[in-house]
Amino acid sequence: MSDSIVIIPTYNEKENIERIIRKIFSLEVAFHLLIIDDGSPDGTASIVKKLQQEFSDTLFLEERKGKLGLGTAYIHGFNWCLARNYAYIFEMDADFSHNPEDLSRLKEACINGADMAVGSRYIKGVNVVNWPMKRVLMSYFASGYVRFITGMDIRDATAGFVCYKRKVLEAIPLHKIKFVGYAFQIEMKFTAVKYGFKVVEVPIIFTDRTEGTSKMSTKIFREAFFGVIQMKINSWFRKYTSS
Asked: Running DSSP on this structure, what letter comes out for residue 142?
């Protein structure tokens, strides 16, 4: 039985899903794996079901009907994991933009005092591979914008490679998390900081996907840009205390 579980949301990831599953299960540190699939028409869930025959005690699948958003997928996964006895709960992409080898480094940061460890592209310069310069600049300055608006001392606020200690997700009222796109990542970090948890950034190298298609869109970017201001304003009228 592992004390750690990795949540991977999927939508049309048939090119990557088997490789990422096998890679995670080949690591020296033992992890369980929860796939949240939003009704992928390309058969991603079918591939996972086939692999469950091989990894029956460590690979889990939750299927949802339709593309409901990254944030709601993670909230679904968090609640699933909290109903079970996991001490460390991870977020990770399916497309190898996050190196599975770094999972153990994020866990180690939490073992050594962090409540939330973030795989950061920007803590030591800009560590991004295969992104066009326009997207690198947009992401980098977006993180600066988030720091300016929120006051968080986190250089990669939109990062989606994260390890949470169980107590963080138990303390945060997950039903009050509003964002569903990539702004979800900002809101979770902001809320964790507001609750007084220690967030530590761990430097990683982010490599853009080589298989499948990106889920980034103008709508998602707009949500993040304007939503951060609203989130900050709302925080002035909210008490951050554990129930």
From this structure: H
Helix (H, G, I), strand (E, B) or coil at 204: coil
Establish how many alpha carbons lie within 13 A of residue 31's alpha carbon, considering only the half-sphere containing its beta carbon: 30
Q: How confident is the model at residue 135 (pLDDT cuts 50, 70, 90)?
A: low
Cβ atoms of residues 20 and 96 within 8 Å: yes
- pTM for this one? 0.89
Separation CA 212–CA 106 (nearest Å):
26
Q: Range with the lowest mean pLDDT among 19-33, 94-108, 131-145?
A: 131-145
Q: Which sequence spans correspond to the domains of the chain?
A: 4-235
Return the CATH fold of 4-235. Spore Coat Polysaccharide Biosynthesis Protein SpsA; Chain A (3.90.550)
For the purposes of burial, counting CB atoms within 10 Å of the CB of 19, is it exposed (0-12), middle (13-18) or buried (19 or more)?
Answer: middle
